[in-house]
Amino acid sequence: MNKNKLLEMEIKYKAPKGLSVKIVTSIVLILYVSIIFKIIHEILNSNRRPVGIIIGFGIFTIIIVISYVLSLKSYIISDSELIIKQLIKSKRINIKAIKDIKLIQNKDLKGLIRIFGIGGLFGDVGKFYHKKLGRLNLFASQHKNIVLIETTDKKYIITPNDIDIIDKIKERMPASL
């Protein structure tokens, strides 16, 4: 297959959940179910309505739903874009805007500060800050295969199941790195 045919195909990479994401998500969901049982118990065994618990449950439900909706499903490379698929939306990064793409280690992200986002529940998604890397947009579901993408105006972290994604993006870049 020639290079032009290769570039016309979309390539999909999974966004597998790492062990820490699975543990955090499991603990949160177990806590959520226990709150449901607490509400049912209070309603059945009390003359008063557990308003505080119900309000907390509502807030907790919203957090879980938003976290799930923003969780990563996959990464897709088209001819001109890297598409980061979430449940109800996609983030598109123009490949022509990518200045650098490289694999980094988990230790390189030590000291990462969450500005606005989700940390652990169904993954790590949102705006983060690192003293050496600056502002980052994380779309991570595990703590390995960490790929740093620098565009002309933003930095992204993705964690695909296969680091071959780096070479596939470089093949589509105007001037190969």
Written description of the protein model:
This protein has 177 residues and is an alpha+beta fold. The chain has one domain. 34% of the residues lie in helices and 33% in strands. It is built from 4 helices and 10 strands. The strands form 2 sheets. It has a 6-stranded mixed beta sheet with strand order 5-9-10-8-7-6, covered by helices on one side. A 4-stranded antiparallel beta sheet has the order 1-2-3-4, with helices on one face. Helix 2 packs antiparallel against helix 3. The longest helix is centred in the first third of the chain and has 27 residues, at 19-45. It is elongated and about 70 Å long. The two termini are 23 Å apart. The model is unreliable at 1-7 (pLDDT under 50).
Cα separation of the termini: 23 Å
Provide mean pLDDT, rounded. Answer: 87
Amount of beta strand = 25-35%
- Beta-strand segment tally: 10
Instruction: Give the count of helical stretches.
Output: 4
Entry summary:
With 177 residues, the chain is α+β, with helices and mostly antiparallel strands. Helices cover 34% and strands 33% of the residues.
Provide the fold topology.
Layout: H1 3-7, E1 11-14, H2 19-45, H3 51-70, E2 72-77, E3 81-86, E4 90-94, E5 98-104, E6 113-119, E7 124-130, E8 134-140, E9 146-151, E10 155-158, H4 164-172
Parallel strand pairs: 8-10
Antiparallel strand pairs: 1-2, 2-3, 3-4, 5-9, 6-7, 7-8, 9-10
Helix pairs in contact: 2-3
Descriptors for this entry?
177 residues, alpha+beta, 6-stranded mixed beta sheet, 34% helix, elongated, disordered N terminus
